[in-house]
Amino acid sequence: MILHVLIFLTGILTLHIFTSLPSLYWCLVLIPIMMIFFSKFKRFALLILCYGLGFSWSLLVAHHQAAWTLAENLEGKTVSIRGYIANIPNAGQHGTSFLFAMKEINKQASHALVRLIWDLPSQALHAGDEWELPVHLKKTYGNRNPGTYDYEAYAFQEGIRANGYVMTKLISKKISSHWYYYLINRFREKVKNKIAENLLATPTSPWITALTIGERHNISAADWQVLRYTGTNHLMAIAGLHIGLMALLAHVIVSRIWRRIPYFMLKLPASHAGAFVSLLMALFYSCMAGFSIPAQRACIMLAVFLTLLLARRQGAAWQSFSVALFCVLILNPLIVVTESFWLSFGAVGFIIYGVGGRLKPQGLWWKYGRIQWVITLGLIPMSLWLFQQCAGISFAANMIAIPWIAYGVVPLCFLGCFFLIFSSTTGSAILSFADKLLSELWHVLTWFSHLPNVVWYQSIPHTWMLVAAMLGIILLLLPIGFPGRYFAVIFLLPVVLYQADVPQKNSAWFTLLDVGQGLASVVQTQHHTLVFDTGAHLSPSFDMGESVVVPFLHQAGIKKLDMLVISHGDNDHIGGADAVVNAFPTRFIKTSDPEKINNSQYCMRGETWQWDGVNFEFLYPTKENLTLNNNSSCVLRVTAGNKKILLTGDIEKFAEKNLVKEVTEDLPADILVAPHHGSKTSAVEEFIDAVNPRYVLFSMGYRNRYHFPHPSVIEKYRQRNVIELDTAKSGAIQFVLNEKSILSPALYRSAHKNFWNN
Questions:
Q1: Neighbour count for residue 725 (Cβ, 10 Å)
Q2: N or C: which end of the chain has fewer CB within 10 A?
Q3: One domain for residues 619 and 726
Q4: What pTM value is reported for the model?
Q5: What's the pLDDT tens digit per position in 437-491?
Q6: Is the same domain home to 12 and 111?
Q7: Which is it for the CA torsion 13, 18, 19, 22, positive or negative?
Q8: Tell me: the pLDDT tens digits for 668-709?
Q9: What is the CATH number for 556?
Q10: SS3 for 257-292, per residue?
Q11: Does a cis peptide bond (omega within 30 degrees of 0) precede residue 709?
């Protein structure tokens, strides 16, 4: 059965080769093709059928998800939508965010999910409430950069088709509030509110909510870093470990009580009663988790196992795995674009493979330690492929954390929430004890995360390297004495020995990263790296340094920074600096506002240096221009051979005129990063003429609220036949500067287009 399900999965994955969604007529074309194959290869008829069904089913679901798209003429306009709040509203820095399931838009029937932000307290909004709202919407857009998370893929498979915000100055109308709409999320919201009311806020209290109902929106970036560095982030998502444990506890308790009551024993065996209740417990805890992918997988596998038990039939572990995989893919075949799908099923698959088929386990190591060792080793290639990193201390940290969470914190969370129904005092005391237990574990994990070299950073740029590494791990986990087991080393060598490409001497690579409305860029020479600005800090749990700049540098194989330049102190330029400095040893930090970043020095006109035959020079500011906010931004010129880049930060007309007056001969450049994102307060014509760029690059957010770049600025560049590129349309923009030429820019969005990307 496993082979047929894997072929079904292969059919689904085939759809993802296409850059645009194929027509539904493909399903009709497949029928005669499959019939031809049936007649020629009857032995493989079932496998061919599985492949065709996988492709066809994913194509149908993808077309269903893409059926509604926000019309361009409605983007940025006030529209009226009617529908239901579809999840638990979460308070954030910019308002309360929630998913909204539309029924109508401008009185026209429309069924799609949109993500909204409303400047209201979260207590005023509840899952399942029906509202009519005036909103501004825009298509779902995510940052597109090498090595970073593809939000658009996540949104597409979830069915989220637009983002927007509620117009608070216009009238919003609550239409109804019925308990039976979005019942599960209503219940989860009540549990969340009960926990918030009865548990004192501590550094670890948000994790109590996460372990109870799977809500992790208020977790700080620093906390996530501790979990990533220790390889324990899987413990803070309700998954098979937690659901399996609670089901086991339910089975033990019910079966023991059942055996003590003769009347019950005469009606039903204790093992069957325990199995039935444990399945109900698994379903209930999965509901509490919002039926996330790991919860779905665990619940389905447990259901298959218990069904076979109740039917008195022996079932193989791979059979349960196959049924769970097939069911999850039927529910949503597009789930294959998410990391959690691969990590969840990958972990269970390696457990079955690495532990099953051996002699009967003897001792603590075989019963517990080997499982953790198999998971740790098995997921290394996948972690490097998805995140360019894996935690070297993962095995030791999990050996402590898993029993602590599984046998201590999770049961107490569940018990505390149960008692909150009857006694707030008792429930609060139990939850507080669970929080104290978690706090003690957190001290240990934090200590682990601060050990030197706890994380191995390595990118896997090619699919064949991932496949080779997975084959190597599979060979390595074969039973001891199995012939050819140590040939695994050969398959693992490409990943271990891989070194990222670097520029040639006298050449430079320039990347303008897509950080939305902000600026972040990277200049690489043969042996040196400079980062110019780091994007914005948007919330305690999200900034562009952590989510874009750091992953890009890791996938590029960069181990240290020779210089970090922060043009000035505005959030959209300096916001991600702390994340970058914490992630990489940084030799020098230059800025026009050293009071806002530690261990920094002024960037001053006339400062020059050379790396690997590439020249760098600060053209601005001077001592007299250090207190002018935007007009104090660092201006850096990079010269490779006779090709030049001019990085200008947020300078405006005053600074542009100063540059034209003082350093006119140094201004000509082939590539100009537009001053102040193309604001109308910039782009003096004398400055543009002095620079005389071939390319002008705008770093901007999609349909940003400032309406950058201004039409008048665009027109000035067009009149001079300058090639315009912007990060909103192109994603990351990469140039290669050789001694005598500039290669055509690589535009990440078009080079890595998928059918779900806008």
A1: 17
A2: N
A3: yes
A4: 0.91
A5: 999 999 999 999 988 888 889 888 888 999 999 999 988 888 777 777 788 889 9
A6: no
A7: negative
A8: 999 999 999 999 999 999 999 999 999 999 999 999 988 899
A9: 3.60.15.10
A10: HHHCCHHHHHHCCHHHHHHHHHHHHHHHHHHHCCCC
A11: yes
